[in-house]
């Protein structure tokens, strides 16, 4: 439901006059729960940490708690009647799981329906975001903003797989097991929904309904729905395996064809086991590894090729390189439990894949897997140490592999695909270019007698990784700001909020309309994206009628379907989650196969006289250098942007209070990408002075209400 006229209040606002606050305060003073025996509750309890700012605003005017969001488009045009009035939609709590439904009912009976739904929204947001990116730092930062905005008495513990959510000082507790499933679409959608709710663009009912619709694919393009799940997802496996094997793992063009076939077979095995479900999913890693090893060994008997390149290129899809960097970030930020656990989990799961592939190779070649492995690594079949600078197709090949990676991360189905897909490719290409060119540049700059000076100590690798990750981070955040600015203008034009647009504004809006129509027609955008173009024409016509004093029209009129377009426009106009396009770039900067090389070197130890052989110690040291330097590069990139934003904010004396508040909120979210957010539960004495002043003012307001 999208409400664009100030004609209703929330469920809590419609409740009886609040008397229980005094009762609640008395119960707290006596050390007892307000619903304990001896204190029968009539009516609704005020949530102990309800939005105090709202109480201060309306508490002296009306004895009711009002936390319903105000609408940014509820402003009248020329009179109060010239607004867009829409129907009211309610979220059906019967669709919730049984445990959430029970807790919801308890909270609703004590504090009201809206408070209970806010808790439901927070838990659902946390679960889906954790599944989509497993970025505990950023998820905690967003949950903290929701908690602070709506005064939820809620705590959480986000583990690597198991998450615990508590509400009302542990009165109720929900457990969830969240597996790995990197998903740029969901992390972006759920992030924007939360932003829209925090900024009071939508109500909690609308937010929950939008989440449900997103899960059912109603806000995903046709191509996005095709590539999101099997069987359409199978087209990505051979494409990624072939391009990755060439760009990263010294494969030749013939090896690319082998990798494509083996990659398709690996995808079919994952599809089959996922379709069976249940305990069969536990076998995915080992069965996929066996499939890759068996097919590669049989093919090798028919015609020789670079086996390590095919192994690493195909298994690249199943490795966890991003999780490894996230684990290092968590350790640096102080989240040792999740960081160390993630480190060990990624290492073990990668070893399962590597061992499965090795066993499959042994089965198919008759037991002499070591000989096959070492023989295939020769210069006759592989291209060790190939200098990609001499190949003009290096960047096109990398971009092709990045397209496959974005499909794997489901970025193809995000809200504004037309801007995000090219933006993600730019971020990935910039990161790769800076990383590669700085690596070559350091070696040439410090070369001695024609030999690279840094080849012994790995400092060239570390420096290039820091530079590449920092460049990708800065680029992602800059492009996010640039596109978000134009998206906001597009939304305002669709809603006829721009009076007398300039010629440049008309050109930009026309170009965006044209691209939306073309991409929507061929299926790269949602149907609603180009349906909204008709809505723009309809509102433009109605606006001219409203401006005509002789016309009988008094208000804007829209249908139920057009109301949904409004809601979708509000959510899609929120700022992009930068990690949605930065995470695939990190995935490309640190191939997850680096850790696989460690395990393959342990399974197939190189011969002492092999010039291309790499010892286990060397591979492990490379792994640590790559992952830690990339994590530091991300931190440096975020810190650089944070500093620039802070300086610009301080140098802008005309910045309004609302813009300053929005800027500070975005800075807090950015800090959540590389730091562990502090909460009052961690250290009650660490509450900021401004928070203490606000809490003191809230207490005074509550005393006035009670009296």
From TrEMBL:
Q: Which Pfam families match?
A: ThrE
Membrane-spanning parts: 254-273, 282-302, 314-332, 344-365, 395-412, 424-446, 466-483, 620-649
Record keyword Membrane present: yes
Disordered as annotated region, ranges: 1-47, 657-707
The record places domain Threonine/serine exporter-like N-terminal at 237-363
Where is composition skewed (Acidic residues) in this entry?
692-707
The record's annotation in InterPro entries points to: ThrE-like_N (IPR010619), ThrE/Ser_Exporter (IPR051361)
UniProt keyword annotations, A-Z: Membrane, Transmembrane, Transmembrane helix
Q: Where is the composition biased (Basic and acidic residues)?
A: 25-36, 657-669
Keyword rRNA-binding appears in the UniProt entry: no
Q: What's one GO MF term for it? A: transmembrane transporter activity
Q: Which family does it belong to?
A: Belongs to the ThrE exporter (TC 2.A.79) family.
Name of the featured protein:
Threonine/serine exporter-like N-terminal domain-containing protein
Source species of the chain: Thalassiosira oceanica
